[in-house]
Design a protein that fits this description.
Strand content: 5-15%
Structural class: alpha/beta
Shape: globular
CATH class: Alpha Beta
Number of strands: 5
Radius of gyration: 18 Å
Helix content: 25-40%
Largest sheet: 5 strands, mixed
Number of helices: 7
Number of domains: 1
Distance between the termini: 41 Å
Length: 216
Amino acid sequence: MPRSLFGQDISDEPGAWHFEQILQDQGLWPAAGVDEVGRGCLAGPVVAAAVILKDDISDHGITDSKKLSPAQREELAEFIRSVALAVAVAQVEPHQIDQINILRASLEAMKQAVQALPIRPKALLVDGNQQIPMEIPQKTLVKGDSRSCSIAAASIVAKVYRDNLMVRYAKEFPGYGFENHKGYGTREHLKKLAALGPCPIHRRSFKGVIQDKKSP
């Protein structure tokens, strides 16, 4: 089973490199930051990224991907890939999400991303409150993409990868506006679902995905 790090007596002090520094001091280095995107979407895969950084790069504007513009994310994702020791991305498809539920799918995507790293990390910093089912020491951090540079880097890489994927899906499945809402349950998306029915990348188990006789 995964082992939790730091114990209850370690305060969550601010600083983008705080948790990474603790791991370095404990000899648990290199460590990977892990995050996922697309968990709340009605369509498309859930995507996770794992990033191993060499140094604190928060002074370059590395922060929660949701706080950045698309242009900023694109630029930072390219920068992260250029300076990181290792980067890996993995995804779990909609039909798998329907079979195993979104929580398990998210953890599976994160697990696959870690396994795809060319360098095996000695520890993980994981966004959220659920540990990845791996026998690697790990620390979960609620809102970790705002508290850890490594997790923030993973959030940016995953977000850019998934957004670009949904733009490509918009060409394969036109009419839904995937290039705009990226699969989230916006008013535009729900309106298109009502008119067209779900397409092959919609998550049929999610509330709001309308299935009718127009469905493929």
